[in-house]
Amino acid sequence: MIGEMTARQRHLLCDPQTSGGLLLAVLPDAVEEAKAIARSHNIDLIAIGELTEPHSDRALIEVIE
C-alpha cells in the first residue's frame, strides 16, 4: 500500500526507468562499511529512509520530501 502522493511524486516513484535502481537495506552498525565498499567500486550510496516497526494504521510506503 502506498500513501497519498501527488501525480509528480507517483511518476517519479513508479517510472520504469527508475525501477532498475539499486535499493538495499543495511544494519545501522554496518552503514560505514557498506559505503566504503561502494566507494571502492565508484558507487555513491545515499540514505533515503529507514525501516520501522509495521503499523496497520499507516501506508507501507510513505513519500517524504
UniProtKB/TrEMBL annotation:
<dbReference type="InterPro" id="IPR036676">
    <property type="entry name" value="PurM-like_C_sf"/>
</dbReference>
<protein>
    <submittedName>
        <fullName>Selenophosphate synthase</fullName>
    </submittedName>
</protein>
